[in-house]
Amino acid sequence: MAVGIFDSGLGGLTVLDALTRRLPEVPFVYLGDNAHAPYGVRTPDDIFNLTTASVERLWAEGCDLVILACNTASAAALKRMQETWVPKSKRVLGVFVPMIEAVTERQWGDNSPPREVAVKHIALFATPATVASRAFQRELAFRAIGVDVEAQPCGGVVDAIEQGDEMLAETLVRAHVDALKRRMPHPEAAVLGCTHYPLMEKVFAEALGPGVKVYSQPSLVAESLADYLERRPEMVGTGTRSRFLTTGDAKAVSDRATQFMRRSVVFEAA
Q: 72 with 84: CB under 8 angstroms?
């Protein structure tokens, strides 16, 4: 049995880390498309084609269920994949659902009309492609009314994190927070809409200031998957061992991942 975890690079490792702590009995196969990262500046068609190729590779590893631990892929490709491409015997899920559930305090299966929620002013930090897709705002509008979302495309942050340049990443985060606060001076909550950003969560929180609730995805996704597998245990695939796969240079990616996670992570060529 195995579940696939896909990301364009290393950001999904933050989700994988939370998943392995929450579901230690489940093998996870991680695939990073490092050869084509970052996705945040690509076109929707590029993102769709790259994502489907990687998901097919995870299916070949015996992962009937694949989590897109990449907000850009979830925003730009997932809906099209689910409507036109994923066979009935497989499942591909994104990382937006748990975040929307947390912000609106209502379960995904709750199909009642949109209603007012406690949080009225939300700052969304994400890649340019995720911001351009407006996927977060679209999904939120199905469940909540009266919520003002101000989105900030955080160009350069993913590249800095992937390259291990924490000083540059921190500088960019603070600049992006400043830019957003010029348009929304007093957000009540902030959504970190990229799985790389939890590594900078403390910087985001400091720059936003006290009183701003920061929503970060890894723990939310872990709880959501645990609930899903309890309801749909048949979706755990036939794979039996955990692996780390990359479309990039395995040695270089392993070195960056080890720095990224502060523990040894060894990738194999996909």
A: no
Q: Are 202 and 172 in contact (CB under 8 A)?
A: no
Active site residues: 70, 194
H helices of the chain, where?
12-22, 44-60, 71-76, 78-84, 96-104, 128-133, 135-141, 157-162, 166-183, 201-208, 217-231, 250-261
Reading phi first (left if > 0) and then psi (alpha if -120 to 50, else beta), residue 190 is in beta
For the whole prediction, is pTM greater than 0.70?
Answer: yes
Q: Look at residues 87, 93, 47, 89 and name the one whose alpha carbon lies nearest to residue 69.
A: 93
The pLDDT score that the predictor gives to residue 109 is 64
Read off the pLDDT of each residue in 118-124 and give the average, rounded to a whole number. 95
20 in helix, strand or coil?
A: helix
pLDDT tens-digit readout, 135-144: 999 989 988 9
Alpha-carbon gap, residue 268 to 22, rounded angstroms = 24
Residue 25 and residue 19 in contact, taking contact as beta carbons nearer than 8 Å: no
Among 114, 124, 107, smallest CA distance to 179 is for 124
Q: How much is the pLDDT for 78? A: 95
Cβ distance 51 to 253 under 8 Å?
no
